[in-house]
Amino acid sequence: MPRFEEIKLAGQLPSPKGVALAIMNLCGRDDTTIDDIARLVQTDPALSGRLLRLANTSGGGHRPIAAVNEALLRIGMKAVGQLAMGFSLVDQFKEGPCKAFDYRSFWSHSLLMALAARELGRLTRVAAPEDLFACGLMANIGSLALATAFPVEYSALLESGSHDPLAAERETFGIDRRECTLAMLEDFGIPKALAEPVFYHLAPDESQFSDASRPSRLTWLFHTAHHLADLGVAAEATRSQLAGSLIRLGGRFEIDADGTATMFDRIVAEWDQWARLLEIPATSLPSFERMSETPPVAAEPDGAASSVRVLMVTACPTSVTPISTLLQSAFGYRTYLAGDGDEGLSMAVAMLPHVVVVDADTPSASAHDFCRRLRATDWGKSVYLIVMTATVDERNFVAAFESGADTCLCKSLGDARLRAAMRAAHRYLGLLDAWQTDRVQLKQIASELAVSNRKLEQVARTDLLTGLPNRRGGMEALARAWSASNRSGEALCVMMLDIDWFKRINDRYGHAFGDRVLEQVGAGLRSEARSSDTLCRIGGEEFLVVCSGSDLRSTMTAAERLRRAIATLGLVAGEGEQVELSISVGIAQKEAGTSSTDVLLGNADKALYAAKHAGRNRICVMAHGKLHHGGAPVSGEDLTRGSGAARPKK
Ligand SMILES: Nc1nc2c(ncn2[C@@H]2O[C@H](COP(=O)(O)OP(=O)(O)OP(=O)(O)O)[C@@H](O)[C@H]2O)c(=O)[nH]1
């Protein structure tokens, strides 16, 4: 019997309980409806809240929802089962008997990974974001499983600090955390198409998935999400390195450095809120920009401790001992050793050195190849690259510079000359540091400017009194609705609304009260308007409603609802005086002969004028070139509603 089945049969694995288990079972049945699941979800207020939050932060500019069954529709039935299970595991396993296993940190990391996987899913559309959230939450569940099934042994194994923990797990338990995760995900009903990429996410290169295939993209997505979570929980000293590699991973998904920074900051903000919801810890982090800054270079080199990292690539460490000793003692640089070009490259990616010293003698072809490959990486472009050879003859000298070296030094150079040559490197590093600081500041300024520009654009389209789109915003909304209607052939109507006798209100109660009336009318209209309608204040006491996908009959019904809402608004002026309000409405629909938005608005305006002329507090329609008065909006015949004009009670 496979090892996983044995452990499972022993009943030692983490598994969902109660409502979550029932939901999972229900989700697995063919005849289950959303309402069945919604009823069950509603019996667990915490789960309801979490699913609503997930649905309301799913992106895509959806309107907010408050009903559980709508949330389930948005999330999808399958994902609901998996999420219920994930949340149930979080709730049950915040503590446990495995002493060396930090349960809370485990969930904190898993949650951050889940949010990162969801965000990457949104950006890449490689899979449904909510499915990715569930997979991210459980992508390392195998560790929890081992901690739960073998608390004492696993604790000892963790404390031993094995350099190959997976091999140690296989040796001790007959299964490692990755295999355990895969088996559990499949057991929980997560499809192979997602479970396998999760399995490979810690070592994507081990998978046999062909490049650019969906499984490969998913594997890299989980790998990137895991890396992002590592950065979120990393110690301060390693953040800059991890941030650098996250930027490189972002490049796989065509996300540039700025995009990575914005994405990270957004995910971390969500992490904080979700962590509170799940009662697990989240680290308070500085912005990604700050975390990715490289440590500054010391201004005074000699003898001072410095954060400059030097990578020395040589098969013969003794041949670079003089320069290594000088760099450490005189300049305070930290040196690291790589045995060949391949090791040098992977170390360079991980540690992001400031200076690289390459021994070109052993063997020279691979040394020059290493220099070229290093220069091809983002970080390698700005590294100070020193090539050292036993003899600096013309051939070695030219080859060194052709492969990208900044300088070529002889290994037997005396201490004084070496020191002088290194001053050039130090000066370069100082300039690079100053340039990077300027760059960070410029980026900061650019992003602040972009934010202010966006805010300004928003303000330019918004009426400050009511918070509704203004004329400019309204005309843009109408132009969009017009184009959409041209493309889809869907109906389009507009309503022009005007408050009746508004001048009298101003004259009698003052402009300040008039402003309050405008605010209240705006709010009243907004709460009564359909979510698909765009409501704007396009002039003093004039409003426009763009009704996309709405035919004349339903627009008239909606207009009547708005008219009634304002007629019953019941505003009270300063001395407790009741002020009656009413609006007149002109409706026009886009017809075969309506050649432009201007013509459509002109028709609605004519209808509004007619409504005013006919006595106000009513709805008139311009259709097929004719004005229609009289006839109830609901029946489609009597278009006129109400009587008399709204005005301050005399
Ligand atoms: N308080 C306030 N008044 C405004 C604002 N914008 C326009 N007005 C006033 O709105 C009034 C509009 O008056 P009119 O165009 O004569 O229309 P009315 O009195 O509503 O009469 P009818 O539209 O014919 O029913 C004017 O007195 C404007 O000064 C505003 O932002 N605040």
TrEMBL record:
Residue numbers of 4-aspartylphosphate PTMs: 359
Domain GGDEF: 490-624
Region (Disordered): 631-650
Keyword Phosphoprotein part of the UniProt annotation: yes
EC number: 2.7.7.65
Residue ranges of coiled coil: none
One Pfam family per UniProt: HDOD
Domain HDOD: 13-204
Assigned keywords, A-Z: Nucleotidyltransferase, Phosphoprotein, Transferase
Keyword Magnesium listed: no
NCBIfam families named among the record's database cross-references: GGDEF (TIGR00254)
Descriptive protein name: diguanylate cyclase
Source organism of the structure: Thauera sinica
